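REQUEST ID: PR-0412
SUBMITTED BY: lab tech R.K.
PRIORITY: routine
TASK: structure prediction, single protein chain
INPUT:
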Amino acid sequence: NEYFVLMLGAGLAASVIEESPRSVKNVLGFGAYVIAAFKETLLRKRSLYRIALDARPPISVRGSALFVVNLGRLPGREIGIAPDASGRDGLVDIVVIKTKTLFHSAAVFAQLLIGRRPDYHQYQSHRASDVQIESRRPESVQLDGDLAGKTPVRVRVLPGAVRVFISRDVIADI
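STATUS: complete
OUTPUT:
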């Protein structure tokens, strides 16, 4: 079992991390991710994901990246992928970026990189407490920015599993 607090990413969301070696990050910092995102957006084809949400029948959706988001907001910063995701509701937000072209993918990911909400007709989103994700070909998976294997994966919300202490003045931001 592996755990995450913020999000799981598959497809492009994980390959960008995979293609950003530490040596490049040490020199370019965040720019290493920008370069990897551009390269991966050019090279990658969309994946066919099969997603089972709670006890509902699985759905199939084609996309370039898939995210399972627990926390959509950090103190003072919004994560643009699923800004309404809350760590308090017992659900995760599942978002599939469905862009087909390099231009649309670049536009969506550029917005995400600067913390803005992307154009929402380019993605599909759902909410659930138990999510199973399969893909036609194995896709790399990252948990909170660390590589963590390949699909298939199962995500279950574990309410109360982590106790977090924060100051009162930060509570409104999360």
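NOTES: The helical segments are 12-18, 22-28, 31-43, 102-113, 168-171.
REVIEWED BY: pending
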